[in-house]
Design goal:
It is a single chain. The chain is mostly helical and about 575 residues long. It has a domain at about 5-135. Helices cover about 65% and strands about 5% of the residues. The chain contains 25 helices and five strands. It has a three-stranded mixed beta sheet with strand order 3-5-4, sandwiched between helices. It has a two-stranded antiparallel sheet with strand order 1-2. Strand 4 (about 330-335) and strand 5 form a beta hairpin. Helix 18 (about 410-440) packs across helix 19 and helix 18 (about 410-440) packs antiparallel against helix 25. The chain is globular, with a radius of gyration of 24 Å.
Length: about 575
């Protein structure tokens, strides 16, 4: 592999006419194959083609999110989204031919049974009739992203983006926190009509996609898009009920203790991120300092993580600074031709920055290992309900190194971060239930939609108090969650995987060597088997089973309650 840096990588627009022709040739070659070696040659050919497509499209996507006002890459992403949807017809035919060929036993023997399961899922979730809907969906999501990325909020004598304003949610002065949240709320309120229009169209388009595949609505298709093959809506609903029973009461206790700690009679929404009366833990240095300390930490954590972080820094595979016109998001993605993950975020000088350096780099480390252990692009990525274990467990594994990033405030960070990990879960399941309601009831009016969110807040977040903010009190908070617009039905994964991360946290405290061994095995496995098998591989519980939530959070719960009692 050639040496490279991301900034100097050449972008070449994918030639979708050639891609379609190559796919048609592959289909013919599969149908005419006389031996498995003929099939293997086609798979290898396709692998090279798909790696190249994924690399170029990812470069365009990254550069578009780095500067959403760059018209060249904006147009390239639009072109890619349109043509990729059209090319999906030919690409799906290759998957179909592989499933139907005479050499499936040999394919299973070499690649494992999950290879053809993935191919079948690609076939099942696509029809040519979906192409115009996919194109419309892409235009709407790009429109949403641009609104978020170009947000300008005047506050504290500065013009801030959506990441910049959130820093003030942790300000020691309650009046400043309140004013910052109101400015944040006002931004979404001022775009309410446009955001609702975008979402309304997305719901209708996605439901049409589901109906084109023979379903009542979009939900079954969404589950396939999230690569869920061994559980469904029933299991997810059972998990949400466990959260309601086990975690919501714990969160209420944690927030009551927090109100007492910071000296307020009632915790308001703008107080939720302010954990300590003398101020939250703040990073002990600037962006460069944090990256250097992260590099030291990963070298001490394991030989594998040390090699990984050096690779990321050497090849400029992280862009973390908060800059104007940069997309308000954070993600990890892949450049398969270079076996390279890429991490994108916007630092804002809060503990969020350390979460990025552990969460997104947890994703990246898993991708780095899978791309070196697995022989096919099919297995480089993993179902999203596993992928978030990679990231959230890495956040927990970083706890022993907190002094590096926070100095004397390290314990503050540990408590605040652990509390946030737990208190997030009710919000996460509320987002999931909200989406189930939205797609099952596509004709709800904007007012009815916000009312449904309001009811879910009362159910899962009974402590939430918006202190007279009319927009938020009638249910406006959901507008801020980009996953609802961009990545439907993804969000439940953060809550499912929190359970796995908490189990690994307990194991890490009791037997660090075993915890790391289980985690590394999970990372190396990539997407080579299904969700339940991957849980088994890492010695983790199934979160849908009765009692699993109480078991998973038991160690974290004890830590948090003991800390409260000591105050």
């Amino acid at each position: 592999m050639k040496d490279f840096t991301f900034s100097k990588l050449e972008y070449v627009r994918p030639d979708y006419d050639r891609i379609e022709e190559e796919c048609k040739k592959m289909v013919e070659d599969i149908k005419n194959a006389k031996s498995y070696s003929d099939i293997k040659e086609v798979i290898d050919r396709r692998e090279k083609l798909y790696n190249s497509i994924a690399t170029m499209t990812t470069i365009a996507y990254i550069r578009n999110t780095l500067d959403t006002t760059d018209e060249f890459y904006e147009k390239e992403v639009e072109y890619i989204n349109n043509r990729e949807a059209e090319a999906s017809v030919a690409m799906t035919e290759v998957s179909k031919a592989l499933i139907e060929c005479k050499f499936t036993d040999e394919i299973n023997a070499e690649y494992g049974p999950e290879f053809l399961v993935i191919e079948k899922r690609e076939v099942d979730k696509f029809k040519e009739e979906l192409v115009p809907y996919m194109q419309q969906e892409s235009k709407l999501t790009m429109r949403y992203q641009k609104i978020m990325a170009t947000a300008q909020i005047d506050f504290d004598g500065k013009t801030l983006n959506l990441y910049g304003i959130q820093k003030y949610f942790e300000h020691p002065d309650r009046n400043v926190r309140k004013a910052a949240f109101k400015a944040y709320s006002d931004f979404y309120h001022s775009h309410e009509e446009e955001l609702e229009q975008i979402f309304d169209e997305l719901v209708k388009i996605r439901n049409e996609m589901g109906r084109a595949l023979g379903y009542e609505n979009y939900i079954p298709l969404a589950y396939m898009q999230q690569q869920r093959s061994d559980y469904g809506q029933k299991e997810v609903a059972a998990f949400r009920e466990q959260v309601l029973k086990e975690i919501v009461p714990l969160c209420e206790e944690l927030y009551r203790a927090q109100a007492k700690r910071i000296g307020v009679d009632k915790l308001r929404v703008y107080d939720e991120k302010f954990i300590f009366p003398d101020g939250n833990a703040a990073p002990a240095g600037d962006d460069e300092y944090l990256v250097k300390e992260a590099q030291k930490m990963y070298h001490e954590m394991s030989p594998e993580t040390g090699e990984f972080i050096d690779f990321m820094i050497k090849h400029e595979l992280m862009d973390l600074k908060n800059k104007p016109n940069k997309a308000s998001t954070g993600y990890m993605t892949y450049l398969p031709d270079y076996k390279a993950p890429y991490v994108f975020s916007c630092f804002n000088q809060t503990i969020f920055d350390i979460q990025v350096l552990t969460h997104e780099l947890g994703h990246a480390f898993a991708g780095y290992m899978a791309m070196r252990e697995q022989k096919t692009i099919n297995y480089y990525s993993v179902s999203t309900d596993i992928a978030e274990i990679h990231s959230m467990a890495m956040e927990q594994f970083a706890y022993p190194y907190a002094e590096r990033f926070f100095g004397k405030d390290a314990d503050k960070f540990r408590h605040a971060h652990l509390q946030d990990a737990i208190t997030f879960v009710p919000f996460g399941v509320a987002v999931d239930e909200f989406q189930h309601i939205m797609y099952a009831n596509p004709n709800l009016t904007p007012k009815e939609r916000t009312m449904e969110w309001h009811k879910l807040e009362k159910k899962y977040m009974p402590w939430r108090d918006y202190d007279g903010d009319e927009f938020m009190e009638r249910g406006g908070y959901w507008y801020h969650k980009l996953h609802i617009f961009l990545y439907p039905f993804y969000y439940i994964n953060y809550t499912l995987t929190t359970m796995g991360a908490m189990e690994l946290k307990k194991r890490y405290a009791e037997n660090r060597e075993q915890a790391w061994k289980d985690y590394l095995a999970l990372c190396k496995a990539g997407g080579s088997t299904n969700y339940l098998n991957l849980l088994k591989l890492a010695n983790l519980s199934v979160p849908f089973e009765e009692g699993s939530v109480a078991k998973a959070i038991s160690y974290a719960k004890e830590e948090l309650l003991n800390w409260i009692r000591e105050q």
